[in-house]
What we know:
Structural class of chain B: alpha+beta
Structural class of chain A: alpha+beta
Distance between the termini of chain A: 18 Å
Helix content of chain A: 40-55%
Distance between the termini of chain B: 22 Å
Order of helices and strands of chain B: HEEEEH
Shape of chain B: rod-shaped
Number of strands of chain B: 4
Radius of gyration of chain B: 29 Å
Largest interface: A-B, 22 and 17 residues
Largest sheet of chain B: 2 strands, antiparallel
Shape of chain A: globular
Number of helices of chain B: 2
Order of helices and strands of chain A: HHEEH
Helix content of chain B: over 70%
Number of helices of chain A: 3
Oligomer: heterodimer
Amino acid sequence: MREKERRSKEELIELLKNLPEGRKIYYRIGNLMVEVSKEEALKLIEKEEGEE
Amino acid sequence: MAVKRDEKRMASLTRQLRSIIAQIEALRVEIAQLDVLVSEYRSTITTLRNLKDLGAGKEVLLPVGRIAQVGAKLEEVDKIVINIGSGISVELPFDEAIQQIEKEIVAVLALREALEKAMVELYARVEELSQKIREHGQAEAAGEEKNEGEGEKK
């Protein structure tokens, strides 16, 4: 079972929102991990949710 | 007419049994995958602890693709980047990261337990259906013997 499927999007959004300021967040694009802001990460999750 | 009905019933029981066995097999595969996941998580915790103990300045090999590795110097292992799903990873302090992985292990084990419980229930259903099939088979055999006996009398 993939990590992606196990955690619900709501849980993920909650976790990100509660993350203290200054913590680095990365988004995986292929083999690359790109550093993103909290807002960008939230947008990416919402975008992914819209595509499903 | 009764024979046809019996055959239909037998076919239905066999179909149900096959379907349940397939479900058990699927659950078994899923449980095995969860076991691999738990083992990977545990191994990750061990690796992280070992790296932290080794400390900054140690030379490590960084895998590049499947066959190449390049040397790199280890920094203080006080921040860990953890994948939280949907392609997002967050940086967490060491202890928090370990706790996060341990939480994942607990969640996976809970899921595993639920799947095992479902499998036990399915095994009980298999037993029940097998019993029904056996009884059905015995009843059919007894019916055939009775018919043969009557035929011989005539």
